[in-house]
Task: structure prediction
Amino acid sequence: MPRLDWIPLLVLVGLLVLPGAASAKDLSQAESDRLSDELDKLANRQVWSGVERKYRELERLGVPMRFEDHVHGATAAREAGDVGRCYERLRLAAAIKPTKDVLNWLWEIDNNYGQVQLVTVPARGAELTAAEMPFDPNQRKAVEAAVESAQADGIFVGLLPSGSYTFATQTFQVQPGLAVRIEVSPKMRRQGIIDPVIIYRDEFGNPTTTNPATGTEAPSTEPPPAEPEE
Result:
């Protein structure tokens, strides 16, 4: 038979451990509630830099966030010109509650923006310009944020409004459903490639070398075929 004198000790240990675990969870939830409350107040005052800061604190906390938290975070990202992060947060909000407003917002981004990767190797400032700045203020913020990022370190990864752009003298077109990557590096020029690498992707994510702006083939990144042996 098991020794019964161990049972009171085990019960005592359980009583000591379980409240501590529950307390830590309660504290995390209490902190999440506090941050959400502050986020609501900042959003009502339209202090979007503060909303962004509180949203990131909530992310680090690791507690499930509210629908309203994600919507406020999406608005803060949009105000900063970060449409890619805005889109990610909207999708999190839609997973909780797919309201008409959120779904329409996602639809608007899907149909007016394209995925872009602009890279200089080694990283150095490069000029990004839009052939025509959008009239829509949110789209304009997205372009201005991308221009600033490219100028700072020669890199931009995110969403840009549809239109024609030039990055490091290379013109490209942004279209919904297509992703474009442009890479500029001295190594490519030493290999005889004059233009930066451009990789377009269709709506299914499949790579294509056709530039939708001109209908021409982008420079190939594949090595030339080997000469047949005699």
